[in-house]
Every structure is written in C-alpha cells, then in structure tokens.
UniProtKB/TrEMBL annotation:
Compositional bias per record (Acidic residues), positions renumbered to this chain: 62-88
Domain DDHD positions: 459-664
Protein name: DDHD domain-containing protein
Superkingdom per UniProt: Eukaryota
GO MF, one example: phospholipase activity
Region (Disordered): 62-92, 217-284, 573-613
Pfam families from the UniProt entry: DDHD, DUF7131, WWE_2
InterPro entries assigned: DDHD_dom, PA-PLA1, PA-PLA1_DUF7131, WWE_C20G8.02
Coiled coil: none
Length: 664
C-alpha cells in the first residue's frame, strides 16, 4: 500500500546502537585496550537487526516511567565519569557479540560483559529513531521533538507532498510555511520534511534567512527554489544507510596491542581471512555449547587492581583464541564429535576483601605493643596460607557458582546435558582440590538444588575433568599426610571396589571428579608431581609423560604454552583409545606398565571427545587400578619441556614470592 494512503505513520525498524569503542571489548582482546584519541568522537555502531529486535521487544514491555528514566540515565552517564557497574544474576538481557559473552541491559541502556566486571566507564546504548548518518544518532530530546513534528505534519500523506511541491515552485517566502519550530530546544531550530523518511533541520538565525532572500533573485524562471540550507536527518537507521555517502574521515578503531604470534599467524590453504570460530562453534555464537570450562587463577591477581595488564581476563581471552585456532587442526577436529566448548574466567580474587580488616587488626596489635614484624622468609609459606584459606575457598565458590548460575540462565538445558570442567592454576589448583574434596559425589541439576545461595563452600555443578597447571597441591597433600584417590560413584568408578575408590565426602584428596591431569614445567619451582600422591612405590617407575612438540620456553608467549596444551589434549583423554604420551627417556618405563584389564559395564561410543573415558571395571594391581581410576591413561603427571635458562626460573620464583607476600 502506498504511504500516501496510510492514516498513521509508516512503520520503520528502530535500531539500537553501541559506542564504537565497544567493538574492542566485543572482540575479547588478549591485551588491555589502549583507546586512541578518536574514540571520543561520538561514533556509534548498530547492533544486528535480530539483536535490535530483541532489545526493542524488551523495551516495549517497560512502563513509560521506566523508559524516561532509562534514557535519562543514558544521557547523564555519558556526561559523567562513573565506573561500570557489575552485572547481576537477576538481569538477563540480549546477548550480543562474539561468543555471546556480552549483553544489552535494556532497562539501564548499557552494554555489559555477562561473566566478569568491566574495568572502565560503562558502555552506554542508544535507541535510535532519527540519524544524521549511519554512525551518528540524533540526541534524545531532538528525537522526541522530531517525532512530535512528524506526527503533526504527516509528511507521508499525498497532501503534504503537493504542498511541498507548491512551496518549492513559489520560492523562499512559501518555504516559511513548511517550517515547524522545535520550540523546546535551545538551538532555535525548525524542521522541514522532504518526504516520509527525510527531514532538514534549519536554523532560525538571521544569517540563514538572509542567504535565502539574497539568492532568490538569481534563480532562473520556471525552476524550483531550493529548500533553506540545513542539516539532513533520516527516520531510522536503515534509511540513513540507504542515503549514506562515503565518510571523509572514517573513525579508526581503538588500538589493541596483539601478541606477535597473533600478528604473524598464517592461514591454512583455502581458509578465508575471517575471525576463527569458537571450538566447534558457529561464527555467530548461536551454536549450543556442550562443555563449559572454568579457569581458576592463582595468587597473582592481587596486582590486577593496580595494573590492568595483570587482569586474568586477558589470559583467558588468549586461551580461548588459541583453543579456537587449535580446533581447526584435523587431529583435534576429527574427534570433536559436535562438542562445543566455552572458556570463562573465575576471578575469585576480586571478591576477596582482606586489606581493610587486616590493617585495623594490625593497628590494634601495635597499640598493645605487639609490633614485631617478620618476613615470609622467616616462616614457611604453607603455615601462613591457612590464615586466609577459608575466605579464599568461599570466594572461589562464590564466583564459580555465580558464573555457573548466569550461564545456565542464558543456556537453557545445559544444567541437564552440559559438562563442566576446571582448569586451575597455581594456588587456584590447591583451592579447587579443597573444594572438590568436600564436594558431594553427584550434584542434581541446578534447578533441583534447594537454597543454592546458601551453599558457600562447594560448587553447584559436577566437575568432569580437572586440569591442574603449575600446581603446588602435592605439598598440601604432604603437609596433611593425605593422598589422592578416586571418588567412588563417579563416571568410571561406579563399580570400583573399596581399595580402588572411596565413597568419602570430606577426605582431602578424594576429589569428586571423573578425571585428573597435572600439567607442569620441570623447572617451575611452584609445581610438584602428583603420581607419588597416589602410590609412592609405583610412582618410582613412572616418569612424567612429556607433552610433545615443544619449541619454546614454558614462560614464553602464552599462545605457545596454551597451544602445547591443546596439542596434547587428544592424547590426554579427549579420545579414550589413545595411549598417553611419554618422553623418550620414560618410554621404556611406561611400556613395562601395562594397562589393567578392563571390563566395561556399559556401551561406549568409540573414540571421541571423551575427557573421562567410559564406565569401566579395572583388573590389576591396586596401584594400577588406582591410577587408571583417576585418569584413563594410568598417570596424572604431564610436563612441558622448556628451553629457558635458569635465570628465567629464578626470576619467576622471586616474582611469585613477592606476589604471595603482597597477597597474604
């Protein structure tokens, strides 16, 4: 139907816009963002049509008061230096961006990361009805005035088009009748509509009027007089795109330093130069995730409050990038079997508040004459850690459970069919072991757990595989005179006898996991072997298994380190039919260590992305069965050879001790 026959205004699609700098955050950078001077230029970028439609649906459910307040908040925040608020669990917005890890909070008109806190000013959203061009929306107050004028003038009707043609033929005097003053604005503007989608903002100043009057005698007869000079605006983003002209000075993106390895990476034959997809995931991030991997950091995150580069988020983003790249390798892609993985950080240190309480206690002691000070070198490190252990455990559980609840709220059905794995580094591995020792053998789905917010020392999810990186867990087990043993009732221990697995919740070292891996560098002073913690005598003949294809230092580029981890994953349990990798020196020892006979209690699906292996009953010596109950390859220790020199490790050791001192 022609727009001239419509009684009401023609429909158009409202588009939601995000600030241009948000592109840098949505790309999930591996390094801190360094804004360039152009990021404050006011350029905006539109959400996709689908994302905008979802935002608009939520917007229409808000009351008029909420809409006014939301738009007021948006403008007030844009002019202030406030810090972004942390996202809360009860707000489920519109997921946007790569991997759907950001979402639009429509009620407060802001773009927020879902699972971590944004360091910096909030990313405010705009609801655009009128645009100067595709990157510049009209301000809210002016949009409202244009909407009122549009409804009053009705430029979509044929009668107005006839009036416009007549005014153009008669000249500047007739143009005055087309003007509609925008009274509530300080700019002294009026608007002339050119058609149902285009308007012209005209200034009411004397200079503008004089120019029209002076030029009118010079126009030829029988020609239409041009409309007064002004600024064009377009009704809707789509119309602005249709009318766009190439910008004279396009806004460059924010500068984001990238690791050298990322800059120099080579594309494989026939691969287009486009962003890689998530491990087994579609490019738009809409594919269902089957495996969630939570990454728990160590102790060094205390420095992230002062130095953004230490933020664990960037390491997780780099990990995700490398995993995405490794997923294209045929050796891994061939056994993924439609498994799709997502990595999320568990930033437990941000929830741990120690400094203020300790400072108050220290002052009280000094007032009482208790002013003796001693350094970490005067005491053993591990006698100090229990001082904060309980609060650290609660902080890890709080953040991990918060992340899991938010994930399940945005991924319906995951609590029933998805799997959760943990990668824990350094002190994070010891904390994870304490939590998983007290963890129930099996958790029901999240929706079936009564009072989940009251659970503060356990995870709300079942942990399938636990990867320990650079872990001091062996020292903690030794101090407690504990040992590692599989938890009965897990995936492969349903039929295990009592000397192979224990059904004991609360015994330190009896972890509620299906599979355990201990990955370390042989020169890392913080990492320890775990095989002796299972059976010391058997471990004497079991050298750690080497992760192959090592070409650089353990403490070199993170991309290289994570790549090695993913290179070995097919050999570390992603396929239950693969033998564990060993170094050449260990091969003779491992070859004399036969795999125990297996009696399977259920059907298996052959090779595939299986971290835990099948449900199986083992036969062999007690030591052999205990190792295989913990890991389907009969060993826990895997190491990353390094080409680094001793000074690297001394430096890392001293740096780690400084972090412990600052932290404790």
């Amino acid at each position: 139907m022609s727009t001239s026959l419509l009684s009401g205004p023609p429909h158009f699609k409202v588009r939601w816009l995000r600030p241009y700098i948000s592109t840098a955050y949505l790309d999930l950078p591996a390094n801190p963002i360094v804004p360039s001077g152009s990021t404050s230029s006011g350029a905006w970028q539109a959400l996709s049509e689908r994302e905008s439609e979802e935002c608009e649906k939520i917007w229409e459910t808000l009351s008029d008061e909420d809409k006014i307040e939301a738009e007021k908040e948006e403008e007030d925040a844009a002019n202030s230096g406030e810090t972004a608020d942390e996202n809360t669990e009860d707000k489920v917005g519109v997921s946007v961006g790569k991997d759907r890890l950001f979402e639009v909070d429509v009620r407060h008109m802001r773009l927020v990361p879902i699972y971590w806190k944004l360091n910096g000013p909030p990313l405010r959203m705009k609801r655009a009805t009128w645009m100067f061009d595709e990157t510049r929306p009209v301000k809210r107050e002016l949009q409202q005035q244009l909407d009122l004028a549009y409804l009053h003038i009705e430029p979509w009707k044929e009668a107005y088009q006839d009036e416009l043609s007549t005014a153009l033929a008669l000249g500047p005097e007739a143009h005055e009748k087309l003007r509609y003053p925008l009274k509530s604005l300080d700019q002294n503007l009026s608007v002339i509509f050119e058609d149902e989608n285009t308007a012209r903002l005209v200034s009411e100043n004397i200079t503008s009027k004089m120019s029209s009057t002076l030029l009118s005698p010079f126009r030829k007869k029988d020609t239409k007089a041009p409309l007064p000079a002004g600024t064009r605006v377009y009704r809707g983003y789509d119309e602005a795109v249709r009318r766009r002209t190439p910008p004279k000075d396009p806004v460059p993106p924010p500068e984001i330093p990238e690791p050298t390895a990322e800059k120099t990476k080579q594309r494989g034959p026939g691969r287009p130069e486009t962003p890689e997809t998530q491990v087994g995931e579609g490019a738009d991030g809409t594919e269902e995730i089957t495996d969630l991997i939570l990454i728990i950091h160590g102790i060094g995150q205390g420095m992230a409050a002062s130095y953004e580069a230490f933020n664990f988020l960037y390491a997780t983003n780099q990990f995700r990038r490398v995993a995405r790249k490794q997923a294209t390798d045929p050796a891994l892609a061939s056994i993924m079997r439609n498994r799709r993985v997502q990595f999320l950080p568990v930033q437990w240190r941000t929830n741990l508040q120690l400094s203020l309480d300790e400072e108050n206690e220290r002052r009280e002691r000094e007032n009482e004459g208790l002013d003796n000070r001693f350094t970490l070198g005067d005491i053993t490190l591990n006698n100090k850690i229990p001082h904060h252990r309980q609060r650290m455990i609660e902080s890890v559980c709080l953040e991990a459970n918060r992340t899991y609840r938010m994930w399940c709220a945005r991924n319906p059905g995951f609590e029933f069919t998805g799997r959760v794995h943990i990668i824990a580094h350094s002190l994070g591995s010891a904390l994870s072991a304490h939590i998983l020792s007290k963890q129930p053998t099996r958790r029901p789905p999240l929706s079936k757990i009564k009072c989940p917010n009251e659970i503060t020392e356990q995870f709300l999810f079942n942990t399938s595989a636990l990867f320990l990186l650079g872990s001091p867990l062996g020292v903690f087990l030794h101090l407690k005179q504990a040992q590692l043993i599989a938890r009965k009732g897990r995936e492969r221990t349903l039929d295990s006898p009592s000397d192979e697995a224990l059904d004991r919740v609360g015994v330190f070292g009896c972890l509620a996991v299906d599979t355990l891996y201990n990955v370390f560098n042989t020169s890392d002073p913080i990492a320890y072997r775990l095989n002796p913690c299972v059976d010391a005598e058997a471990a004497q003949t079991m050298l750690p298994s080497a992760i192959p294809a090592i070409n650089a230092s353990m403490f070199g580029n993170l991309s290289n380190r994570v790549s090695r981890m993913f290179d070995v994953m097919p050999k570390m349990g992603f396929s239950s039919s693969t033998s564990p990798p060993t170094s050449s020196s260990a091969r003779s020892n491992s070859s004399s260590r036969p795999r125990p006979a297996i009696s399977r209690s259920g059907p298996t699906n052959g090779s595939g992305f299986e971290l835990g292996g099948a449900n199986e009953r083992l036969e062999g010596t007690r030591a052999e069965r205990r190792f295989w109950a913990l890991n389907p390859h009969g060993t826990l220790d895997f190491f990353l050879p390094s080409e680094g020199n001793i000074s690297e490790y001394v430096g890392k050791y001293l740096s780690t001790q400084i972090n412990f001192i600052a932290y404790l």
